[in-house]
Amino acid sequence: MLEFLTAEQNLPFSVALLVMFLLALFEGVGLLLGLGFASLLDTLLPNVNIEGPNIDSAIAPSRFLGWLGIGKVPTLVLLIVFLTSFGILGFTLQSVMLGTFGFMLPGFLASVPVVVVSLPLVRACGGVLSRIMPKDETSAVSEKSFIGRIAVVTLGIAKSNSPAEARLIDEHGQTHYVMVEPDVEGESLAQGTQVLLVNKLGTVFRVIET
User: Fold this and answer.
1) Radius of gyration for the chain, computed over Cα atoms and rounded to the nearest angstrom
2) Which of 64, 88, 127, 147 lies 20 to 30 Å (CA to CA) from residue 208?
3) pLDDT, tens digit, for every residue of 15-43?
4) Distance from C-alpha of 30 to C-alpha of 47, rounded to nearest angstrom
5) Is there a single domain that holds both residue 176 and residue 77?
6) CB 42: neighbour CB atoms within 10 A?
7) Which domain holds residue 70?
8) What's the CATH code of the domain at 189?
9) What is the mean pLDDT of the chain?
10) Which residues of 43-67 are buried (b: 16+ CB within 10 A; e: fewer)?
11) What is the C-alpha separation between 105 and 209, in angstroms, rounded?
12) What is the pLDDT of residues 53-66, one digit of tens each?
């Protein structure tokens, strides 16, 4: 068993589980010392909250983070879930390959299907955890409170009936991603343009350039 776990082909999966155990250990020690590694990790990523219809989600990193559950569940928890599923699924795949065909796949090759399967598992686990974990109600904001706030177009070009993605900061300092289109007919707002949210129609905010 030890030879199997330490085999070169299983190196990515061994490392993933080792990192997972270390992260869990550090978080446990941090809680005892009054430190929060989970909150520190969350500060490195935006609190993703995406509203509006899907647009070219394949090239929108914020949409991918939102799909995974970043912002709903602590990032450290999702990372531990990913590392655990990646390691266990990797060992399972290699065990099946060894028992069926008498050999194991190279680590980099085996990692590809394992990552593909692990990401939906992270999303599913994140969805379950987001419903059972306590939430900080004091930081909840209404979408209506976004009206009157300044945002910056981050993805695409906002045109009439063709919304683009924009980023804004709420009163709690949390980052939100919303869909916006110009309030002035015929106007276009390129990426990097600073806009003021003036109205909300459906899932799209109407904005004017500031």
Assistant:
1) 22
2) 64
3) 999 999 988 887 776 666 555 555 555 55
4) 22
5) no
6) 17
7) 2-47+54-135
8) 2.40.50.140
9) 80
10) eeebbbbbbbeeeeeeebebbebbb
11) 55
12) 444 444 456 667 66
